[in-house]
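Q: Is it fine to ask for two folds in a single conversation?
A: Yes, each is treated on its own. Send the first.
Q: Here.
A: Result:
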Amino acid sequence: MEKTVTEAIQFRRSVRVFKSDSPLDDNKVTDCIANAVLAPTSSNMQLWEFYHITNSNMLMEMTTACLGQNAAKTAQQMVVVVSRKDLWRKRAKANISFLKSQYGEKDKADYTKRESFALNYYQKLIPSIYIDFLGILGGLKYIVFQGIGLFKPIYRQVRHSDMRIVAHKSAGLAAQNFMTSMAAIGYDTCPMEGSDTKMVKSILNLPYGAEINMVIACGIRDEHGIYGPRFRVPFKEVYKKLD
């Protein structure tokens, strides 16, 4: 029986050693990736891709790229979450096409105020935030927006580095969706921060603008696959209720 959300979150651990005789169902892993893309994403831009690796030779290459850590060595499969800030134009156009399909064919003057705002958001605002040239435009925009911010609240994360962070945050949310979905069906994962991302990009034949968000090893936990009990700092240290 599939676990509840709470059960899945509590079941999920970063498993360092997977069983060698317990293969995963490719289709079930794919279904979990399908859940990943339902994660919230900034401006619905969906600047992510997911590479599902089942090929044994590629898994060996990825193990080397992941610095030979045990989770990589014993993984039955891997999923690489890739941040694609460089695809912002394509994703913005996809949003525009979707919105127009929902609003129906009509002249520009016939759009409601809300519909016009949504279309302008992707046609004008998104380009103004994402367009950059060697970081120069981002720096200029940052100065302008900080100046405006002296007089009223305004969005301030407009530099190239800021937009990279935005894309990676969304990819991280999707990765968590994936790992929770895997846990819900009794499959285990380990998000691996330690990797040679340049080598990973080469293995996956990714373009320059793509960035590795994380590599996730997948399998069924070995008896000794979890290295110790779960540790979290006391909840009261991180929970701040503002009455």
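Q: Second one now.
A: Result:
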Amino acid sequence: MTAETGNIEGDDRIIRESGVDARVAAIIAPVLRATGFRLVRVRLSGQNGLTLQIMVEREDGTMTVEDCEEVSRAVSPVLDVDDPIEKAYHLEVSSPGIDRPLVRKVDFTTWAGHLVKLETSILVADRKRFRGRIGEADEESVVIERDQPAYGEEPTVRIPFETIADARLILTDDLIRDALSKDNKARKEAKKRRGEEVDEDSAEDETETEE
């Protein structure tokens, strides 16, 4: 992933693809928007021959197995027509997962307080790799509160969004609880919008996930 790729209309990600991955992203982005999903990441890897992983989520951050199947059915025809990959490949549609990549500015606000691994494309405070908790974020940058600062380093560093090349949440018990709670709330709100009955005694109720 890189921050230096061409624009895709309506794509608000700060970390985007290059090369073949970028061509795939440009092809599928309009289809995803039309079906109510947003792109997180495209990655073509050499696993099992060639695997094209398309990571997506709904606007509210949720993603089910059925959603993955829906996205697969929607993007397969346009990929077959445009044929951006010369060799045969396996298509894999997935959710971002709990230890997800952070690709939008809003992701850093949504997951503030959680641990993140982050790499920059240029030196920031004499480093390119950072690990710490996500602090405050504005339109231009995010503060990382280092969990293990080296001798002489400031405990916090402000990193401009334009320099971020890769960022991913680190799996912790707190992250799991928060992710389950956010997912549960989002699903309940989605049901309310559709006029469906909400089960307040669900096993994944937010009161249980926040204990």
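Q: Anything structural to flag on that second result?
A: Two points. DSSP finds five helices and eight strands in the chain. Residues 173-193 form the longest helix (21 residues).
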